[in-house]
Automatic annotation (TrEMBL):
Function: Catalyzes the reversible ATP-dependent phosphorylation of mevalonate 5-phosphate to produce mevalonate diphosphate and ADP, a key step in the mevalonic acid mediated biosynthesis of isopentenyl diphosphate and other polyisoprenoid metabolites.
One GO-annotated biological process of the protein: isopentenyl diphosphate biosynthetic process, mevalonate pathway
Entry GO terms, CC: cytosol
Keywords: ATP-binding, Cholesterol biosynthesis, Cholesterol metabolism, Cytoplasm, Kinase, Lipid biosynthesis, Lipid metabolism, Nucleotide-binding, Steroid biosynthesis, Steroid metabolism, Sterol biosynthesis, Sterol metabolism, Transferase
SUPFAM superfamilies noted in UniProt: P-loop containing nucleoside triphosphate hydrolases
Gene this chain is encoded by: PMVK
EC class name: transferase
Pathway, per record: Isoprenoid biosynthesis; isopentenyl diphosphate biosynthesis via mevalonate pathway; isopentenyl diphosphate from (R)-mevalonate: step 2/3
Protein name in UniProt: Phosphomevalonate kinase
Amino acid sequence: MAPQTCSPRLVLLFSGKRKSGKDFVTEALHSRLGADVCAVLRLSGPLKEQYAQEHGLDFQRLLDASTYKEAYRKDMIRWGEEKRQADPGFFCRKIVEGVSQPVWLVSDTRRVSDIQWFREAYGASAQTVRVVASEQSRQQRGWVFTTGVDDAESECGLDNFGDFDWVIENHGDEQCLEEQLGSLIEFVHSRL
C-alpha cells in the first residue's frame, strides 16, 4: 500500500546497468523540468541510510561513486535483498513519503518487485524507462565487471523484463540522447 502523499501524475521508473547513465539521464530531465515539477527519488537512498546506521558507516560516503561505497557494495546488496524478501515494498514506501511534485523520476529501479509495487500503487501513472549503453561506453565511464555485483539480481533483475515503455540509448552520442530526452519531456508535459 502506498503511503499518504500527493498522487503523482507520472512516475518514471528508470533502470539500467551500472554506468549506463541512469543518474545522468534523470538529472538531465530534472534540470529541464524543474524542481517544482519533478522529484528525483532513489531507492538506494533509504537502503544506504539504513545500512549505514546498522553497520556504523558514513552514509554520505555511501551515496557517491567512491571506492568506499564499492568496498561495501556486495554486503549492502545481500542486506537489501534480505529486507526486500521480508517486505518487497519497504524501500519503495520510504522514498515516496512526503513527495509533492506531480512527476517522480525513480532513478534506480532494479527489480520486478519495484515495478510491481509502483504499478499497484499508482496504476497507469507508472511508466518504465530502460537506459542502455554499450559495454564499451560503460567501460569508458569506469565500469569493470565485478563478480557478485554485475551478475546479481540488483544488476540483472530486469534483464528479461520484457517491454519497457521507453528505452533511452546512452552510448555517448549527445545529439541522439538530446532527441530522446526531448521526446520524453514532450510526453511528460502531455501528462501535466
